[in-house]
What we know:
Layout: E1 2-12, E2 39-40, E3 46-48, E4 60-66, E5 76-79, H1 88-91, E6 93-101, E7 109-117, E8 129-133, E9 137-139, E10 146-151, E11 157-161, H2 166-170, E12 175-180, E13 193-205, H3 218-227, H4 253-262, H5 267-271, E14 287-297
Antiparallel strand pairs: 1-14, 2-5, 3-4, 4-13, 5-12, 6-10, 6-13, 7-8, 7-9, 7-12, 8-11
Bound molecules: calcium ion (3 copies).
One calcium ion (CA) is lined by residues 30-32, 52, 58-60, 199.
Amino acid sequence: MYRCICVFIVVCVTSALGNASPGATFQRDDFQSGTLEGWAGGAAPTLVADGGPDGSGDAFLRIISDGTLGPGSHLATFNEEPAWTGDVGALGAVAVSLDMMSPLASPDLEMRLVLFAPTNPINPSNLNRRWTSTVAASVPGDGVWRRYVFSLAEADLTHVQGSDSYADSIADVVRVMFRHDSGPPSSSGVSIAATVGIDNVRFLAAPGDANQDGHVDGLDYLIWAEAFGDDPAMDPPGSPLNGDLNDDGAVNGLDYLLWAGQFNNGPLDVSAAPEPAAASLFLVGICLVVRVRRCRTAG
Ligand SMILES: [Ca+2]
Ligand SMILES: [Ca+2]
Ligand SMILES: [Ca+2]
């Protein structure tokens, strides 16, 4: 059976080279490699081979705090690896996503994302620029895995230490942390005796940004059009890289509507206004009529 999809669209190609992203990447830490993937801290980070969100064989990271004083008193884990640090702003991510589970024997938790940046280049170990989630994510002690999303937007973060701007801090992240911090957002969190499981940690691209370059444009449309009708589970690399922009397991018109609603609204679309001096980096004002015709043989 032949199936042909003919789609016409006017695509304004705003950027083909604007996705430089030194440092941070969109890699997903799923702990299937058998390592801690750089997640560290005093709360005894341990790799557990089974019992992640997908059950048997799904490894995850477990941390345990003792609620006393000193190392191990706070329920926290952090990562300073290149994939999690550097110019996070240039990556074009809008949030950090992860799965968390607090066991039945553990108290309810109030988890926050914390971003650290050094005070100055002369003393990079002095992590006195700190931003944390203004609203904590409630993780009940019920043994159930849930997906949590922590926004990276300045409006959703509280500057809990230091005086540098958000823009300077997000461009120079040296540590990403998840931490229990009940009450108002603080620079150091609060002590608690608790346990939490963590899995599938990753930066999230903007809605509609299929190729994860920080822009929502015609290139993302082309990815959707190419994958239209596919089953994302059978067509790696998976959502939304293959066009399943709303991550519902199907590549269909709903994904197109999401893309259309977010068009030109990526995090780097706002700040990527081209300058004459940078004309070589952008194909500005070139409007192309792109026809995507796809014919397949099935069966
Ligand atoms: Ca896993
Ligand atoms: Ca894009
Ligand atoms: Ca979809």
